[in-house]
Amino acid sequence: MEMTQYKKPLPLPYVDSKPYWDAARRHELRVQECSQCHERWFPPSPACPNCLSPDHEWLLCSGTGHVYTFVIFHHVYGAEWAQDVPYNTAIVQLDEGPRLFTTIVNCRNEDVAIGLPVEAIFDDVTEEITIPKFQPVSST
Q1: What global pTM score does this model have?
Q2: Predicted confidence (pLDDT) per residue in 20-30, tens digit
Q3: CA distance 123 to 129
Q4: Do the strands 64-73 and 117-124 form a parallel or antiparallel pair, or are they unpaired?
């Protein structure tokens, strides 16, 4: 099956974020966990934000969490999103702790709410890039 041309900006994985994007391509959600103090964080960085240790692992997450906060956009800020207006952007707090900036899908905007239980799904937008998004747990 041939993918349609993805017209929105794509992430540019760099040395610290490449393991995150590689995991997403495998439909896994991973965050960093410090090997010293066990702090978990996102976005990716070379050192723990708590103790500054450079030693960490990539923790496989459950992919579940809740909407921490969100906004509904009703204005076109970029031509790439014109067909999506109105659309939401959200911060999801994972059950493992870190918060991710994302989109809530398979849900009407008026049904997005703070505290809404959500689960990760994966949007294969190109052969190289998969974008994690979230949907209400009851959508499955």
Answers
A1: 0.91
A2: 999 999 999 99
A3: 9
A4: antiparallel
Asked if 72 contacts 85 with a C-beta cutoff of 8 angstroms, the reply is: no
Alpha-carbon span 120 to 131, nearest angstrom = 10
Give the DSSP H or E segment for 18.
helix 18-25
Cα 67 from Cα 94, distance rounded (Å): 9
Asked if residues 48 and 105 have their Cβ atoms less than 8 Å apart, the reply is no
* Range list of β-strands (E), 1-140: 30-34, 40-41, 56-60, 64-73, 87-94, 99-102, 117-124, 130-136
In terms of Cα–Cα distance, which of 130, 140, 69, 74 is closest to 106?
140
Question: What distance in Å separates the CA atoms of residue 112 and residue 54, rounded to the nearest whole number?
Answer: 37
Q: For 98-126, how does the pLDDT look when each residue is reduced to its tens digit (9 = 90+)?
A: 999 999 999 999 999 999 999 999 999 99
Both structure tokens of 40: 């978990």
In which element (H, E) is residue 21 found? helix 18-25
Question: 């999801």: which residue's tokens?
Answer: 92
CA nearest 26: which of 61, 53, 2?
A: 61
